[in-house]
Amino acid sequence: MSLGPHLLLAIMEGTVSAFVLAVTALGLSLVFGVMRIVNVAHGEFFMLGAVLAWWLTSLVPEAPFWGFMLALAVAPLLVGTIAIVADRFVLQRLNYQPEATIVATIGLLYILQQAVLSIYGPEARPVVAPINFRIVLPWFGYSGYKLVVVGAAILLLLAAWYGVTRTRFGLIMRATQFDGEIAQAFGIPVKRVYAAVFALGAMLAAAAGVLVVPLQQAHYLMGLDPLLLSFVVVIIGGLDSLKGTIVAAFIIGLSDGIISVFFSPTLAKIIATLAVALVLVFRPNGLFGGKVR
Amino acid sequence: MTPALRARRILLLHGGLALLLLLCQFVLPDYHHTNFVSIMVLAVYALGYNLLVGYTGLLSLGHAMFFAAGLYGAGMGVHYFAWNPVVAFIAGAAAGLFLAVLVGLVALRTSGVAFMIVTMMFAQAAFLTTLYFNDVTHGDEGLTLTQAARSFALFGTVIDLTNPAIRYNLAWLLLAGALAVMLLVVLSPAGRVLIAIRENEERTRMLGYDVRRYKLAALGVSGLLSGAAGAAYVLFFGYVGSSFAAIPYSIYPLLWVLLGGVGTVAGPVIGTLLMFYLIEIARDYSSSYMIVVGAILLVLVLFFPKGIIGSWRARGQGWIP
After folding, report:
1. Lesser CB count within 10 Å: N end or C end of chain B?
2. What is the tens place of the pLDDT at every residue in A253-283?
């Protein structure tokens, strides 16, 4: 393949991973923005989404399409429930103190990951895509399911945007983010808002995991990359900026795709992690973030 | 309590701990004898980590890069350039110091949660670098050092690092040295400044201390001890691979220090010993033994944040450093 088609392929692959990354990172960003905590277990919610998708689709082997729809609906709900339990019994007890919370979510990371290892096993298992068509370009074929992923991700992002900016719950959430104590004084049940936001963040990660699993197979260690890339995106995009998160997901997703195709995936990740560390040092609020109050 | 009495008690506690570890070699069966070498070397790593986390209040999530700098600095020197193990050890420790200062110059511009994420990111970049230069490091497969490369002549006698007795006593010497360094640092005026930074950075700055320099120095010594531990580990056990640079090796020292007691000198040693055996026992039962790491982290942070020695100190034993 010559350079042109090669670049096209890299951009197309990069776009798909950018959309998946945007959904995952949005979850992390919401949790950080509203609760001011860093959830290191976020990648495990992504992994749980993928693994649960494998389990749920295997319940209806004769109808892959409906099995996948079932997974898309149920897996995020189950993961959200786990998140609520974690919030109630761990994060709430720690009073959301930032450093203790990070240590606790590291603990949570290992508990979830190792529980999946012991129940689901160390194998990587494929999930059949709900639709099966190929787009044939002159240079290479392209799985049509990837377009479905992009479409579903756009829907999720739009729904999140609508939810945050146009609904009553979004208003309550933003009020809590702006000043938790004042919100409490106005009768907003801050604890329940926190639980809901933590669950919502986990559900976004789980949905991204479900979407990605037909492309990538479900494996108990698959949470690490999305976690690190989400950190990269959230930090570069500004720690509480929705728009910044999405723009950064595109920069990272595309550059990751292009560098991976032309050089090596490892080099792409090295560059991304170093970039984020430097951004954090020199522009602590991210490239697009506003001032921290 | 008079200073002399306090000094005597401190000496008794830490000297006693060191003496106990020294004497253990005569009663331990072979298997545990080797385990204790690991534990003593890893305890040095934990001590270095604690200087930063416990005494300076900077929580690093990326210390594996300094440990790995020591492992690779010493291991590649021996493997590729046939360095004398003594030279390799010094080079490994220096690599830890150098990397820590380098990272510190950038990362110390942040603090709190941002510092945790930055160190985690740098460590991940370091881990990926060991994979990327696969031709040199052999990635996950790693490098193995031969027995011949791990022995050297000192004053006419051959010292073979694969000999269990020599290995045990050298590991003990390293740990005793690290304990002494920690006590000297922590009890010195500079150590008090570090604790002041932990308790209230702004106030320490207001009092006229150059906080940046103290933090950089603490990170440097922390990196030096971590690098020394890494260098000793590769020389004693003859293997270095990418897994030593991966995230779990940044989490382990956090766990050891939390269990033993954050901001205590003896705590990390006890924490390393207990955690080593807890993981070892869990490994016998299940392949998902890392769940123990997660569960204990949760339990410690929720119910036992002061750790073993820290809780003892809180019960009216304020003399414990």
Report:
1. N
2. 888 888 888 888 889 888 888 887 777 777 7
**Cα separation, A209 vs A206, whole angstroms:** 5
Q: Give the separation between CA A275 and CA A278, rounded to whole angstroms.
A: 5
Is residue A283 one of the residues assigned to a domain? no
Give the count of domains, chain A.
1
Answer whether B122 touches A (CB < 8 Å): yes
pLDDT at residue B71 above 80? yes
Cβ atoms of residues A26 and A158 within 8 Å: no
User: Would the pLDDT of A122 be above 50?
Assistant: yes
Are A111 and B132 a contacting pair at CB < 8 A?
A: no
Considering only CB atoms, A110 lies closest to which of B106, B258, B290, namely: B290
CA B73 from centroid of its chain's CA atoms:
16
pTM of the full predicted structure?
A: 0.92
Q: Which residues contact B127 (CB under 8 A, 6 or more apart)?
A: B64, B65, B68, B242, B245, B246, B247
Asked if residue B41 has pLDDT above 60, the reply is: yes
The torsion angles phi and psi of A133, rounded to 5 degrees, stand at -145, 155
Is the CB of residue B28 less than 8 Å from the CB of residue B165?
no
Q: Do B116 and A228 touch (CB under 8 A)?
A: no
User: What domain range includes position A43?
Assistant: 23-222
Q: Which residues of A touch B (CB under 8 A)?
A: 38, 90, 93-94, 98-100, 102-104, 106-115, 117-118, 122, 224, 228, 231-232, 235, 264, 266-267, 269-270, 273-274, 276-278, 280-282, 284
- Answer yes or no: is A205 within a domain: yes
- Among A90, A233, A280, A292, pick the best mutation site for testing chain B contact (most B Cβ within 10 A): A280
Please report the ipTM that was assigned to this predicted complex.
0.90
Buried-state track A63-89, b at ≥16 Cβ within 10 A, e below 16: ebeebbebbbebbbebbbebbbebbee
Could you tell me if residue A254 is inside a domain? no
For chain B, the C-alpha Rg in angstroms (whole number) is 19
